Amino acid sequence: MGKLSSAGDQAPVAGAPGDTDLALAQAGDDAAFTRLVAPLQAELHAHCYRMLGSAHDADDALQDALVRAWRGLPRFEGRSSLRGWLYTVATRTCLDVIAARGRRALPVDLGPSSERSVPGDTPRNDIAWLGPYPDGGLPAGPAGPGARYEQREAVELAFVAALQHLPGNQRAALLLFEVLGFTVAEIAAMMDTSVTSVNSALARARRIVAEKVPARSQQQTLRKIGDARVRRLVDGYAAALESGDADALVALLTEDVTWSMPPLPHWYRGLAAVTDFAVAQPLSTCGEWRHRAVTANGQPAVACYLRPFDTDGPYEAWSICVLTLRDDHVAEITSFLGPEHFLLLDLPTALP
């Protein structure tokens, strides 16, 4: 790991709250260490998710980072804030994961869209897929005075997916500067590199992200649409699936709508292709649907439960459909298949 005491914000003021816990933790008091890091765990977890594109990977990385921090805390000299020091440890931990595993993907990264429904599409388990994020604990505003992105903007699917196209150092530099508000000099110390290298990484990262992320964030779109219209879109989507009403579903969609379902590799673009898929599969042959409105990645989402036709069993967890809105229509549907995503969102895996 190297020395972890040279990055972050200003040094803590002597006698400030937490100084006693810091001294106790450095002396080996694990309860004091828990009290120190507890207020920062949610934002550190979100940082790990942005870096890695998976809430499960973020769980593991944060746990590893906290173990590293606990072991390295006696060497923390207070020249930076504890928050900055912990971000150093978490960022370096995530960079190790990226170096070992590579980036995560969505179906749109694999190839062109399909024009017709693909029956019997089988999961690609050889691909590390991007996953959804339970954003309930994130604040709405920026993390620091120098941050460009709001915390919820920075977990939106388009932004996190764009980050996956960046090398680890560029990903880290962009997040630390634009999302968390650290200075270039602080980031250089955190990443054990030069200010020139950080500025170069930032320039390249901004260019790639600008090409892949819409000019208007989902947070801006949601505020413009308003809560009432968002609820109607979510309820309308769920009702259309439950009733098998293709016309009602199509009325909610943009002309260039996309629908993807990781870990299934095929995806669809445009009303004709999406309608063909919807009519051939979820609206007719899959079974009976039940739904719950939720949020994920700072966006409206629908938890979909499925029961095969002509059975009396429970409705089983099937997918978390994250909706990306444009104006007052649905522009993207990303359906994350699998009950593990329901556990992330504290949802039951079956409904009666």
Helix segment count?
Answer: 14
Largest sheet geometry: 7 strands, mixed
Q: How many β-strand stretches?
A: 7
Structural class: alpha+beta
Helix percent band: 40-55%
Multimeric organization: single chain
Mean model confidence by pLDDT: 92
Rough outline: globular
Write the layout of secondary structure elements.
Layout: H1 19-26, H2 30-37, H3 41-52, H4 55-72, H5 82-101, H6 157-163, H7 168-179, H8 184-190, H9 195-212, H10 218-225, H11 227-243, H12 246-250, E1 253-260, E2 267-269, H13 271-280, E3 288-296, E4 299-307, E5 315-326, E6 329-337, H14 340-344, E7 350-351
Parallel strand pairs: 1-6
Antiparallel strand pairs: 1-2, 3-4, 4-5, 5-6, 5-7
Helix pairs in contact: 1-2, 3-4, 3-5, 4-5, 6-9, 7-9, 8-9
GO cellular component, one term: DNA-directed RNA polymerase complex
Domain RNA polymerase sigma factor 70 region 4 type: 158-207
GO biological process, one term: DNA-templated transcription initiation
Give your account of this protein's structure.
With 352 residues, the protein is α+β, with helices and mostly antiparallel strands. It has a domain at 218-351: Nuclear Transport Factor 2, Chain: A. It has 14 helices and 7 strands. Strands 1, 2, 3, 4, 5, 6 and 7 form a 7-stranded mixed β-sheet that branches. A hairpin with a 2-residue loop joins strand 5 and strand 6. The chain starts with 18 loop residues before the first helix and ends with a strand. The model is unreliable at 1-17 (pLDDT under 50). Belongs to the sigma-70 factor family. ECF subfamily. Residues 110-131 are annotated as: Disordered. Residues 158-207 form the RNA polymerase sigma factor 70 region 4 type domain. Keywords: DNA-directed RNA polymerase, Sigma factor, Transcription, Transcription regulation.
